[in-house]
Amino acid sequence: MDNTAKVRELNDSFRKDEGRYPGRWIFTVGIRALGEQAVTDIQLKVMYFNSFTEDNDPYEEHDFGSFTYDRQKIFWKIDYYSDAKMEWGSEAPHDPKKSYRVLTVMLAEEY
């Protein structure tokens, strides 16, 4: 399996919250302001997002997505760090032992 396929597999597994790989989710102030039910609904939409295209996933890593929730444009993205302190970007996002994923969910206007 090439590195792109490994990154994609790790991102999908992490995003689906399978708990096998280290990382965390961050919901921005704008997302949290929508209320607890909205946060839950949005998290589920991110987990099951599968509308990847050449436009929103040009590197085929499944590390970004967007959708509409209650007339709000929502973005989510995954960044890679070398450790949980999130001080340095990971140079090996294809290796779960050398990467810590952070999935940020935000209103498009917060981007």
Overview of the molecule:
β2 and β3 (72-81) form a beta hairpin. With 111 residues, the protein is of the alpha+beta class. It has one domain (3-110). The protein is globular and about 40 Å long. The longest helix is centred in the first third of the chain and has 13 residues, at 3-15. It starts with a helix and ends with a strand. The protein has helices spanning 3-15, 29-32, 36-47; strands at residues 23-27, 64-69, 72-81, 100-107.
In short:
This protein is an alpha+beta fold and 111 residues long.
Largest sheet: 4 strands, mixed
Beta-strand fraction estimate: 25-35%
Question: Care to count the β-strands?
Answer: 4
From the helix content, strand content and strand pairing, which structural class follows?
alpha+beta
Number of domains: 1
The first-to-last residue Cα distance is: 33 Å
Tell me the strand order in the biggest sheet: 1-4-3-2
Overall pLDDT confidence? 95
SSE series: HEHHEEE
Provide the gyration radius in Å.
14 Å
Helix percent reads 25-40%
